[in-house]
Design a protein that fits this description.
The chain is an alpha+beta fold. The protein has one helix and five strands, in the order βββββα. The protein has one domain: Double Stranded RNA Binding Domain, CATH 3.30.160.
Length: 96
């Protein structure tokens, strides 16, 4: 897993996309201004790493703002059985 941190309202959000059984699990780590951290756990599964990262960022922003957190839609993931899934970085240019 690799991700690029994002500063948001004095917090640091680290979106994660981990390859898992033909899909990417979305997670986020939030660091508060006082240095305290928490991790979301798996938020949902997405067919693309960028989608998993985008969702993690939106979830983290909502958490920081005290808003209702978004819910992941159930996505149908299709992958070739021989596809070698590796952890994919969340590219800063591809996330809002």
């Amino acid at each position: 897993m690799h991700a690029i941190p994002l500063n948001y309202n004095d917090h640091v959000l680290v979106p994660l996309a981990a390859g898992e059984r033909g899909s990417f699990a979305s997670m986020v780590i939030v660091t508060k201004p006082n240095g305290a951290r928490w991790a979301s756990g798996v938020l949902g599964h997405f067919s693309e790493a960028d989608d998993a990262c985008r969702f993690a960022i939106e979830y983290g922003k909502a958490e920081v703002d005290g808003r209702r957190r978004p819910r992941a839609l159930k996505l149908i993931v299709t992958a070739e059985p021989d596809v070698n899934l590796t952890d994919t970085p969340c590219v800063s240019g591809s996330v809002p």
